[in-house]
Amino acid sequence: GAANAVLSSGATRLVLREVTGAQPISRRLVHVNLDVDDIQSAYERLRESGVRFTYPPRVVNRGSKLEVWAAAFRDPDGHGIALTQWRELAEA
């Protein structure tokens, strides 16, 4: 669509979206989501490297069959970055 671009390589897609009128830095705004296979492992590796997280891995959305886990941090310019992982819910 207008003001959007999608860059694709294999299973990776990067969506660039022009946003006008947004505040420069919003505490609740995530600028980049990085989907990982193992959020806990990625979180621990980054933390050991000195990354200071806004919040550790936790469930941020739950459906009937899937839940989304996320852990967030800020880059040196204050932009929000989140690690995300989709997990299937165990059958009850």
Overview of the molecule:
With 92 residues, this protein is mostly beta strands. 11% of the residues lie in helices and 48% in strands. The protein is built from one helix and six strands; from the N terminus they run βββαβββ. The chain has one helix at 39-48, and strands spanning 4-9, 12-17, 32-35, 53-62, 66-74, 80-88. A four-stranded mixed beta sheet has the order 3-6-5-4. A hairpin with a 5-residue loop joins β5 and β6 (80-88). The longest helix is centred in the middle third of the chain and has 10 residues, at 39-48. It is globular. The mean pLDDT is 85.
Which secondary structure elements does this structure contain, and how are they paired or packed?
Layout: E1 4-9, E2 12-17, E3 32-35, H1 39-48, E4 53-62, E5 66-74, E6 80-88
Parallel strand pairs: 3-6
Antiparallel strand pairs: 1-2, 4-5, 5-6
Unreliable segments (pLDDT under 50, ≥5 consecutive)? none
Compute the number of helices: 1
What percent of residues are in strands? over 45%
Oligomer: single chain
Helix-strand topology string: EEEHEEE
Mean pLDDT: 85
Summed up:
The chain is mainly β and 92 residues long.
Feature tags:
single chain; mainly beta; 1 helix; two-stranded antiparallel sheet; 6 strands; 48% strand; four-stranded mixed beta sheet; 92 residues
